[in-house]
Amino acid sequence: MIKRLLVTVILVNTSILALTGQTNQHMLGLRAGYNISGMDSRPTRNYKSITTYENYSLVYTYYHDLWGTIDFFGIQSGISKLSQGYKTDEGENRYQVISIPLVSQFHFDFWKMRLLLNAGCFGGYRQNRVNFDGSGFDEFDNKIDLGIIAGGGLAFILKPLEFHLEGNYHYSFTYLHDPTKYSDRDYLFANPKQLILSITLNIQL
After folding, report:
1. CA-CA 20 to 30 A from 31: which of 4, 75, 192, 201?
2. Strand partners, 105
3. What pTM, to 2 d.p., does this model score?
């Protein structure tokens, strides 16, 4: 009984020390991005990338010591409005996506800078599609957008401000449309992809 009590006390004290030793930092930021978006298809089709500038995000970042020991861990989320699309021989197709990312952001601090490494996922909703022929979404198109994010960048710390320059690759696991949209026999699998080069102005809370 005494041994169990001692073990319990030690564990509680250790947990309290770990929690009190954590370094927490909250940031809220506005992001603008340059988007190079395209399409990954099977079988391969002649899809070409397009570029857009109408990409904005409200971002929340939380840096903390994971389990009281890993002091370079952080999480990031927010809401983004992204302009995406692709080009075919017939013309250009564009659509917008409201997206919510959830990213683990590892930061390695030096001087007044940070090296950033990102890995995570996103969920979104596709809307306002405009095709080269003036048409929009139809019953074969998927509006739900789910995928992964990977990337990195540099942060410049000028307290209470912090500037992030990043490049992040987004790959959608949900097809842009039903594989049978154009043929019941010859399936076409189309996964949107994009590279977003961005700058974020954060304020440390």
Report:
1. 192
2. 118
3. 0.85
Instruction: Say whether pLDDT at 3 is over 80.
Output: no
Give backbone dihedrals phi and psi of 162, rounded to 5 degrees, phi first: -145, 125
Domain ranges of the chain: 24-204
In angstroms, how far apart are the furthest CA atoms of the chain? 79
Q: In the 3-class helix/strand/coil scheme, how is the chain assigned residue by residue? A: CHHHHHHHHHHHHHHHHHHHCCCCEEEEEEEEEEEEEEEEEECCCCCECEEEEEEEEEEEEEEEEECCCEEEEEEEEEEEEEEEEEECCCCEEEEEEEEEEEEEEEEEEECCEEEEEEEEEEEEEEEEEECCCCCCCCCCECCEEEEEEEEEEEEEEECCEEEEEEEEEEEECCCCECCCCCCCCCCCEEEEEEEEEEEEEEEEC
What pLDDT score was predicted for residue 137? 86
The closest of 20, 24, 25, 47 to 36, measured between CA atoms, is 47
CA nearest neighbour of 182 among 85, 40, 38, 43: 43
pLDDT of the residue at 171: 98
pLDDT tens digit string along 138-148?
A: 889 999 999 99
Output the six-digit token pair for 4.
């169990």
| Fold entry, domain 24-204 | Porin (2.40.160)
* 84 within 8 A of 33, measured Cβ to Cβ: no
Model confidence pLDDT, tens digit, residues 29-46? 999 999 999 999 999 888
Please answer whether residues 92 and 133 qualify as being in contact, where contact means their C-beta atoms are separated by less than 8 angstroms: no
